[in-house]
Amino acid sequence: MDWKRLIQFALSGSGDLEQYAILLVRVSIGLFFAISGANKLFVAGGTKPVYETLVQANVPFPHQTAYFVAGVEFVGGSLVTMGFLSSPACAALLIDMTVATLTSAISTLPKGLSPLNWLDDFLYLPEVLYALFFIWLICSGPGKFSLDNWLACKLSS
Hints:
mainly alpha; 8 helices
C-alpha cells in the first residue's frame, strides 16, 4: 500500500474524483427539487402547504406565488439534474431557498439561544444547506458530465 499517496489524498483530496462529486451532488439535489416541484404542481392539493406557508409569512399573491415557487423547483431542479443552464437554474433555486429561509425557516429556530447555538441551528436548516450547495455548483460549474459542458465543447470547436 502506498501510504504517502493515501496521506496526500486524505489531506488534499483528488482532482480526479472531483467531477464525480459534482455529478453526484448536482443530480441528487436536482432530482430532489424536480420531484418536490412536480408533487406540488401535479398532485392534487400539492400547493396547499406552500400556499399556507406563504399566507402565514404575509407574502403577496400567495396563490400565484405558490405555483411560481413550485414551477421554479420543478423546472430548475430538472435543469440542474440534466446539467443544462445549470448556473441560472441554481441561481433561481438559490433565491427560492433564500426566501424560504427568511420567510419561514428562521422562525422555526428556538428563541433565546446564544449566538453560537443560533448559528449551529441556522446552519442545520435544510434550506441553508441547499443554498450552500447551489452556491458551490454556481462556482464550480455543472461539471464534465453535463449538457452545459457538452455544449460548451461543441461551441468552442
